[in-house]
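PROTEIN DESIGN WORKSHEET
SECTION A - STRUCTURE
LENGTH: 450
C-ALPHA CELLS:
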C-alpha cells in the first residue's frame, strides 16, 4: 500500500468518516472516561480470575446441552471442527465473521478436505472471493472501492450489476440465502462469553450471524478464552462501548445471546451447539503480569483506526491475523517474539492507540515492552553483530564520520544494484527510497558557519 496513493486515499477517507461518527456518539456519554474505566475493571476482574469464570460459564452451558471443547492450540481447535464435520457427514459450511477462525486458519484446513465453506459477512465474503485475508478487524474489505467489488463479483460470480452498494449487496444476499438453507454446519465467533448465565454474545450489523447460528443443524462457536466476562449486566457497558469505539455507532444493529442448542418447546435454533474454547498461547500472556492487560482487548479496532502506521501501510502489510497496534502487541506473544518482534518496532509511539482504547489497554507501552524483551532475548547472530558495530560506531565520533565518508563514496554503486539480490538494503528499498547522503554533513556545515 505504501506505494499505492489511491489505496492510501481510500483508507484515509474511510477512517476520516469513522472519526466524525465516533466523536459524535462519544459525546453523548455523560462521562466517556468513566465508561472506559468501568469497562477496564470488568475485563480486569475477568482476566485475573479467568479460571473461575471459564468454569462457571462452561458449567452453565453444559447444563443446557452444549458440548464444550478446550483447545490448547490451533491444531486441536481445527481438528475438533474437522472431526465433527466428518462424524456428522457435513457437506457445506457457512461462517459468520470470526477473527479466531482466521487465527487458527480454519477455512484453509476445511477447504483442503473438500468442504464448501462460505463467509456470510459481506466484507468477509468479498475478501474470500478475492482470495485475500481480512484487511481490518472490523471492516474486512475497507480497502476495496465499489468499482473493485463490482469487478470481483463479475469475475467470481458472473454478475453484471452496477457498483451501487444496494445492488452489490443484493447479489451477495441472493447467494447467501440459498447457502443458509443448505448448510449443514454454521460456524461463528463470540464477542463475549457470559459466565453468570452460560451464554455467548454476538454483535453484528447485518443479521448474517443470527442466520448462521440458527438455520444449520449444527452450530460451532470459536472463542478465545479471554473473551469471558463475569455478568450479563456487564454487556450494558461493553456493547455500547464496542459499537462506539469500533464503528462510530451508538449500538450495533443485532446483539444476540446464545445459551445452548434448541431446547424442548423452542421453534428454531440448532440441534447441536459446540463451543470451542481456544488457548493458543493466551495463558502464556496471562502469566506475564506486566502485559496481561493486552488480553482485555474486545477487538473493536479503534486502535487501528487512529494509528498513523496502519493508515499509511495498510492492514495486509502486517502479515498476521490481528493488525494494527494491538496486533503488534499480542502477535509476538501468540506466534513467537523473535519471529514477530518487527511489528512492535513499526510504531511511532504516539500513544493514540492507548488514548482511544475503550478498555484502557496500555498499548504503546506494551510495544516498548516487546522491544525490550526482544532485545533481552538472544537475537539472531547477524543482528547481534550489526547492533554491536552500530554501538561502537556511534560511541566513536571519528569512526562515525569515517563511516559516512565511505557510505558517500559507495552510494552511487547502490543505484546500480537497487532492488536486486545484491542490494544490501533490499528489504528497505522494495517499498521505500533510500535517502541520499548529503554532500556535506551537519558537522561540516556547522564548522563552516563558525
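SECTION B - SEQUENCE
RESIDUE ASSIGNMENT:
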Amino acid at each position: 500500500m505504501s506505494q499505492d496513493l489511491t489505496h492510501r486515499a481510500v483508507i484515509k477517507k474511510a477512517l476520516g468518516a469513522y472519526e466524525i461518527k465516533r466523536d459524535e456518539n462519544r459525546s453523548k456519554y455523560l462521562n466517556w472516561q468513566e465508561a472506559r474505566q468501568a469497562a477496564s475493571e470488568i475485563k480486569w476482574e475477568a482476566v485475573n480470575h479467568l479460571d473461575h469464570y471459564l468454569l462457571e460459564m462452561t458449567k452453565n452451558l453444559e447444563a443446557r446441552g452444549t458440548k464444550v471443547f478446550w483447545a490448547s492450540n490451533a491444531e486441536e481447535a481445527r481438528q475438533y471442527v474437522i472431526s465433527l464435520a466428518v462424524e456428522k457427514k457435513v457437506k457445506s459450511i457457512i461462517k459468520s465473521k470470526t477473527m479466531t477462525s482466521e487465527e487458527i486458519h480454519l477455512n484453509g484446513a476445511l477447504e483442503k478436505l473438500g468442504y464448501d465453506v462460505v463467509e456470510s459477512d459481506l466484507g468477509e465474503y468479498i475478501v474470500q472471493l478475492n482470495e485475500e485475508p481480512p484487511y481490518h478487524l472490523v471492516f474486512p474489505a475497507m480497502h476495496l472501492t465499489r468499482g473493485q467489488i463490482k469487478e470481483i463479483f463479475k469475475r467470481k460470480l458472473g454478475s453484471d450489476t452496477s457498483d451501487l452498494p444496494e445492488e452489490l449487496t443484493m447479489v451477495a444476499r441472493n447467494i447467501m440465502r440459498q447457502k443458509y438453507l443448505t448448510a449443514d454446519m454454521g460456524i461463528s465467533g463470540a464477542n463475549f462469553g457470559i459466565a453468570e448465565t452460560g451464554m455467548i454474545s454476538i454483535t453484528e450489523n447485518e443479521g448474517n450471524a443470527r442466520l448462521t447460528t440458527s438455520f444449520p443443524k449444527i452450530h460451532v462457536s470459536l472463542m478465545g478464552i479471554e473473551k469471558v466476562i463475569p455478568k450479563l449486566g456487564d454487556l450494558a457497558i461493553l456493547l455500547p462501548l464496542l459499537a462506539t469505539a469500533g464503528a462510530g455507532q451508538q449500538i450495533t444493529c443485532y446483539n444476540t445471546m446464545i445459551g445452548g442448542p434448541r431446547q424442548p418447546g423452542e421453534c428454531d435454533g440448532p440441534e447441536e451447539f459446540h463451543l470451542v474454547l481456544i488457548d493458543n498461547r493466551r495463558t502464556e500472556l496471562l502469566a506475564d503480569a506486566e502485559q496481561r492487560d493486552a488480553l482485555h482487548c474486545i477487538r473493536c479496532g479503534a486502535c487501528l483506526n487512529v494509528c498513523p502506521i496502519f493508515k499509511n501501510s495498510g492492514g495486509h502489510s502486517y502479515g498476521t491475523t490481528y493488525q494494527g497496534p494491538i496486533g503488534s502487541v499480542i502477535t509476538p506473544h501468540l506466534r513467537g517474539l523473535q519471529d514477530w518482534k518487527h511489528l512492535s518496532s513499526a510504531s511511532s509511539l504516539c500513544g493514540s492507540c492507548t488514548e482511544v482504547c475503550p478498555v484502557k489497554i496500555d498499548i504503546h507501552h506494551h510495544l516498548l515492552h516487546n522491544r525490550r524483551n526482544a532485545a533481552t532475548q538472544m537475537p539472531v547472530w547477524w543482528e547481534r553483530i550489526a547492533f554491536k558495530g552500530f554501538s561502537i560506531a556511534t560511541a566513536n565520533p571519528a569512526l562515525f564520520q569515517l563511516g559516512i565518508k565511505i557510505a558517500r563514496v559507495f552510494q552511487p554503486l547502490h543505484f546500480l544494484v537497487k532492488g536486486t539480490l545484491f542490494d544490501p538494503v533490499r528489504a528497505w528499498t522494495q517499498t521505500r527510497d533510500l535517502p541520499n547522503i548529503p554532500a556535506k554533513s551537519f558537522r561540516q556545515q556547522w564548522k563552516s558557519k563558525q
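SECTION C - NOTES
The chain has three domains: 5-280, 284-376, 381-449.
The longest strand covers residues 218-224.
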